[in-house]
Amino acid sequence: MALLFICDGEDPDIWDKALRSELPDLDFRLWPDQVGDPDDIDIALAWLPPRGLLSQFPNLKAILSLGAGVEHILQDSELPANVPIARLIDPGLKTGMVEFVTLEVLRHHRMDPQYREQQTKGEWQLLRQTLSADRQIGILGLGHLGQACAEALTGFGFPVAGWARSEKDLPGINCYSGEEGFFSLLEQSNILICLLPLTPQTEDILDATAFGALPKGAVVINAARGGHIVDDDLINALNSNHLSAASLDVYRQEPLPPDHPFWAHEKIVMWPHAAAWTLPESAIPVIAENIRRANLGETLHGQIDRRRGY
Ligand code: NDP
Ligand code: OXD
């Protein structure tokens, strides 16, 4: 079995060693230097593969995303038609995302930005605290990560509602679906968290209309993809004081260009796409299992539906 590792910015030796500890016979090849004969490649393990690359391997059995998102693969118009694609469902990613979302929710719930500003001015002033029971959280996307975050936040006493494509019945979570459900969720969300996949249906979903539907003073946390947010609409909603703050981990262009207005905006907390990292120690067992499944022609763990886009 030959696996082509396509990822800038990760140390390939760590992945090679970790994968071979699970699959000793694996032929690990690094793109672009060690591709060898394209006919040999069985598996592509990829993050942001260049367009057109994956169509060059006629015997490909599976395309495995190195992350939870797959839009970076599906955006390739030359993608080979019948090769199964899997997103990464990894316990480490889940823990990372729950930590990130909890951190940002508590930051805004406990008015950390306001207290930090006071600190810079040497001001000592108590701000009235709101009970978690009085702070409604809305989560767009109730998948692997959205559900885990919803559960964690209910543990702090926040009322949590969520929105998904399909109808759901989850204990302790108010579940919505459909366009009407989208606006019902927005209208009640003091803190809105986006954990949707980026698809043609969800691109630009957080626009002026969506921000306008949120209660005045709401906070937006985007840990999904930059393409979910219409940047100018977010800035306008913050500048008009309709929204009080935003925490952003993801952007339309990454790294975000230095002249982008988000950088200097006093109401935006920025992260460099760091909410949840794919760490080999937790991801390798899942990836190794998918390599075994691909070899046997079995359905992959986290196999996506190309028509749905996730
Ligand atoms: P899942 O596929 O498990 O869940 C996606 C959820 O979104 C599902 O509940 C799905 O509904 C819902 N959804 C999809 N399309 C629509 C739609 N058109 N309308 C309403 N709901 C919709 O994904 P994960 O939870 O694993 O990951 C979510 C995203 O988080 C990833 O795609 C990625 O972009 C992002 N991410 C970001 C990271 C970071 O570091 N910033 C790290 C990891 C992930 P249904 O349940 O009905 O199918
Ligand atoms: C992912 C990500 O999709 O890191 O896993 O954004």
Mean pLDDT: 97
Rg for CA atoms: 21 Å
Number of helices: 9
Oligomer category: single chain
Strand order in space, largest sheet? 8-7-6-9-10-11-12
Q: Detail the poorly predicted runs.
A: none
Derived from helix and strand composition plus strand pairing, the structural class reads alpha/beta
What molecules are bound to this protein?
A: NADPH dihydro-nicotinamide-adenine-dinucleotide phosphate, oxalic acid
In helices, the fraction of residues equals 25-40%
Task: Tell me the fraction of residues in β-strands, as a range.
Answer: 15-25%
SSE order = EHEEEHEHHEHEEHEHEHEEH
What characterizes the major β-sheet? 7 strands, parallel
Instruction: State the separation between the terminal residues, measured CA to CA.
Output: 26 Å
Shape: elongated
Q: Give the tally of β-strands.
A: 12
Please give a structural write-up.
The chain has 310 residues and is of the alpha/beta class. Helices cover 31% and strands 17% of the residues. The chain is built from nine helices and twelve strands. It has helices at residues 12-22, 71-74, 91-109, 112-121, 144-154, 178-187, 208-213, 231-239, 280-296, and strands at 2-6, 27-30, 41-46, 62-65, 85-86, 137-140, 160-164, 173-177, 191-194, 218-222, 243-248, 268-270. The strands form two sheets. The protein has a seven-stranded parallel beta sheet. The chain has a five-stranded parallel beta sheet with strand order 2-1-3-4-5, with helices on one face. Helix 1 links the parallel strand 1 (2-6) and strand 2 (27-30). Helix 3 (91-109) packs across helix 5. NADPH dihydro-nicotinamide-adenine-dinucleotide phosphate (NDP) binds at residues 67-69, 93, 97, 141-146, 163-166, 195-199, 201-202, 223-225, 249-250, 273, 275-276, 310.
